[in-house]
Amino acid sequence: MSKIKSDSIVMTILAKSILKLENGSEFHQLIEQSDAILTVYSSTGVGVFLPKNQSGWSANSDMRIKRDITPIESVMDKVLQLNPVYFNYIKDASDSDVREGFIAQEIEVLFPSIVSNGTYSEELNDRVKGVCTANLIPYLVKAIQEQHTLITQLTSRVDELMARLI
């Protein structure tokens, strides 16, 4: 058994495949014959894997591990309130590239489930908020679908009006 310590958390490696956090949460690592190089998941089934031949993590999304699935209701009003920004972190060098993203506190008002508290900051005397921007995708897709429905309706109406004029 060995311990890994960072500023924010102490982890204990219990075995090759289980990582136990100080707060009691367990994360499991699977190395198996699959398309994944590495899989990490919690006992609840929430997890991610690093697929071969891809450059990013994939979230577990299999229908067989989900329940109480319901469609997302209209979100256009919330999506229109999103405020994408360019910024630099306070500690970035003055010549660093400009970044793009969102302000966690603004997102939290609209979509609280995608904002979480990260590590503690001595300077802020508080935990730093983070946004899982990948979790915005379902809301953005829903907003596009809403727009498409409206465009289709308006196109039909224009066609009807044009037919009357001809």
Notable traits:
166 residues, alpha+beta, Arc Repressor Mutant, subunit A, 7-stranded antiparallel β-sheet, two-stranded antiparallel sheet, 11 strands, 25% helix, disordered N terminus
Q: Please, could you describe this protein's structure?
A:
By secondary structure, the chain is an alpha+beta fold. The protein folds into two domains: 64 residues, no CATH class; 97 residues, Winged helix-like DNA-binding domain superfamily/Winged helix DNA-binding domain (Arc Repressor Mutant, subunit A, Orthogonal Bundle), CATH 1.10.10. Helix content is 25%, strand content 31%. It has three helices and eleven strands, in the order βββββββαββαββα. The strands form three sheets. It has a seven-stranded antiparallel sheet, with no helix packed on it. Strands 8-9 form a two-stranded antiparallel ribbon. The protein starts with a strand and ends with a helix. The N terminus is likely disordered.
